[in-house]
Structure formats: structure tokens, C-alpha cells
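so im writing up the methods section and need the Major facilitator superfamily-domain-containing protein record in one place, dumping it here so i stop losing it
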Amino acid sequence: MSADPESAAGRMSTAPTDVEYQGSSSTPEKRPISSENSGTINEDTDTTDGPDALHRHQTHKTDHGDADVDGLGRMHTAASSFMASRLSLPHEIVFVFVVCCAQLTTQAGLGQSISILHVIGNNYGLDKPEDLPWFMAAYSLTVGTFILISGRLGDLYGHKRMLVIGYLWYAVWSAIAGLAVYSNVIMFDICRALQGIGPSILLPNGLAILGSSYPDGPRKHMVFAIFGAMAPSGAVLGSCFAGLFALTWWPWVFWVFAIVLCLLALLAVVAVPSPPIRHSEPTTFGTKIKQIDLLGASVGITSLLLINIAWNQAPIVTWHEPHTYILLLIGILLIPLFFYIELRIASFPLLPLEALKSTDIAFVLGCIACGWGCFGIWFYYLWQFHLELRGASPLLATAQVSPVAVSGAVAAIATGFLLGRIGPAWTMVAAMSAFLAGICILATMPIDQTYWSQAFVCVVVIPWGMDMSFPASTVILSNAVSKRHQGVAASLVNTVVNYSISIALGIAGTADVYVNKGGRSKEEVLAGYRAALYVGIGLAGLGWLLSLVYLGHDYQRNKAGSGKK
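--- predicted struct ---
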């Protein structure tokens, strides 16, 4: 949900750091397409970057001096390599604002439905609470599922172009989601899912643009700190405006949001600088399909979608319905097929598995999946607690949740300092501790209690889990993979973060439904909520244990390394 200066800027670049050329006045020597991933080159550090770092590079002489040719046929020159250095201060401010709004609007899209869940549900005549999580889960599902392929498309067709497309796609489906008021809840859920593809395009390409625009240093760190701080602010803004528009008619929140997104797309066209581009060598349609890894992407996306749909549909229709576990079974069976395609068939694998063999990666992704799954449960049931059990209005509930914006901003900045002093392993332990503490506070909170006793404390504590785990994980993965695969590591963390939020809601919803006995009284509803929150505690506890194991592993490795010296 956030990005940190140390993780996204200091340790790993998620985008090209050179001016991109597609072709040149002199024809570069041709080289066969290899099975390695191709990417863009950082001239200053000789590292391969990009949301999907793809191929090693070669240097050729051109009219513009030395240039690099990557496996996608693009040239890169060291001249004027950092775009932000060529901008005036007002232009730079607008540029950073437009790109950071990718993070802001992503979380606003999450918040715009959570605060008015019951308003939307009443509009569609939903009388079962288990139907409501889909409004949030459908959105998070596609945000997490399509990030990797979106990063690859940015590498191939340009990150600025994909940023503009992301804003426009997001705007179109936000507008259609509002129009779904005239249809039914299934149409609205589909629109929410398609709406989530917009942020999945915005996030990797926005990070790529920032990574390519600044040299490593304090200015770049500050830009990424701003990007990270936008996450909790976006969630609060989305919730607040949803509550305001719900006082008139709830679809207006989606229509006004669509207008804002269109304005951001226009600003992106004007304010985001474009690197010089020349004509590239002709590329056949078949080669483009191979470069996108369409087969691997299709199988991987289908698998993730089916597994997630099964878990989030189960609380509604129960596991007694055959189609629920059939979808789950098909999704699970597609996983080994995806690995086979990536290892044996794909010329340009979307997920280069040979680069992800480190045990560090397994520990870190396990921590991230557990911690952010816990956060998804906490976020949904905190709102339900305020709206359903305490009878708060959407605006009052937003005010009660709003401290996450301040706490998250402080956590994002503090983490930048902590990473350099205590290291990523200890930072990950602290993050998992914050997740565990926050969910435990909510799970034990009584209905009739002052806001300041536990509700306020948990909204202050849990942002530290979010804003410490994300940068710590990206730093650890950055150290665990080769320089050519830094972008893949960043995209993988984003995928796990958003997908975990969605699937954990389905698992918690199953516990809720089986415990609340129909939810005919506040006591039964509370029992169901607590069951769901206990699932969150289990996930957070598992993440905490994994972080401790990783800390011990890291300590032993450092001890062995210092012993050799």
C-alpha cells in the first residue's frame, strides 16, 4: 500500500535511468533473442532496471555517442539521463504530484467503497452481510493480479504511455461503476474488478517513471517518501468523499472520481516528460507476443482469479456448492502449468523463476502475504465495527479512521531512517509486530467503549506495519536477486500485497459466516466479526514467526560472513 524512499529509490531502481531510443541513425548489430529477461540500463551503476528487468545490454556507436541496445530492440544513451534534472521547480512539483497520485488514487479507490458498503448494499437490496466484502475484494483482486503484466507492457511500450492509459482506464470503469446503479450488484462487482486494473497499470509504471527521473540521493528519497505517504491519505480521502456524496446519491462518488482521473491523465500528458524516441526496427506480432509472455500471463492470471473467486464466493454460497471448490481446484491445478511455461516455454518469462531461488524470498513473501492479509481483514472489519455495531455514519467513521493518514506518513519517513540503522530484518520483525498488535487490539474491542481506548490506538499502530513491511521486503528482495531482476522483485512485492488483501477477506468471511449463526443479534454479529479477526491474528502471528526465523537466518549469515573476514 506504500512505497518507501529507501526501498524504492536507495536500494533498487524500478525503471530505466536512461533516455530511451527506439532505433538510431546507425543500425546496431543484430543479436538473437535469448531466454533472459530484457530491461533498461542504468549507466551510472551498470544495473538492469525496470518493472520487469529483461535482457543484458550491448553498447553500440551512434550519432549520439555510446548507446545501449536491449533485448527489446531499444537504445539507451547516457546523455541527459535523469529527466527531473531538466525540469523547472514548478514543472517538477506538478510532475511529482501527477505520478504520486497513482498511489493516492489507488487507495482512494479502496476507500470509496468501504465507507458506504451498507449504502450500496441497501441500494441493491442485499440482506446478507457476506455479500458486501466483494465490493472491496473484487477491486484488490485485479490490482494484485495484473501488476506484473502491466510492468512488462510499460517496459515494451513506454511507462508514460501506460501511466496515461492507466488513468483513462481507471476513469472509464469508475464512471461505469456509478452507472451500475441502474443494473444489479453483479454488474457493480464486475465494474469494481475492471476498475482495479487501472491501479495495477498505474503503480508499476508510476514507480518506474520516478525511478528513471532521479539519481540516487536525498531528492529521490524524498520523492519516494511522498509517494509512500500518499497511501493512507488516499484511503482517508476516498472514504471521506464517499461519505459526503452518499448524503445525496452514492454513484456521484464514482462519477466525480472519473472526472478527477481524466484530469490527471491530461496532466500526465503535459507534465510527465517524454524521453526522445526514434523509430525502432520492425518487430513482428509473434515477437511482441513472446516479449509480453502472453501464454504465461494468461495462465497465471486465470489461476489467481479462480482461486480468489472461490474463496470470496464461499461465504455467500458456502462450500457445499460444487462450483466453489471446482473453481478452487482448477485454479490450483493451473499453478504448476504456469511454472512449467515460465521455466520451459517462455522466451521472455514474466516471472524469471531461476532468479527467485533464494530462501530469503520465500521468507519475505510469506511475511508480506500474512501481514497484508491481516491488514485486509483489519481494514474491512474495523469499518464494519464502526458502521454496523456502533452505528456511526460514513463521515463519522471516516473521521475515526483518519489518524492512519498521519501515522502512516510518520511511519513512511521514519522507516527510511530505521532501515539504514537497524537493517531490513529487524524492520520486518517490527512491522509484523505492529500488524499483530493492531489486529489483537481490534479483536478484543468491546462495542460499548470510548473511541480513545482501543479504536484510536489500533488505527495509530497498524500503519507502522504497512509502511515498515513494504520497504523492508523490497530491500531484502533487492539483496536476494541479481541486478537484472530488481524490477521483478518490486512488482512481485506489490502483487503479493494486493492479492493477499483480497484472498484473506474471503478466508475471514468464511469464518464469519460459520460462527455468526445468521447474525440476528448484535452479539451474534460480534461473534462472527471476532472469528474473522482471529483469522487475522493467526495470519499476523504466522508472519511474526516467519520474520523471527528470517531474523535468525540473517544473523547467522552475517555472523558467518564476519567470521570469514
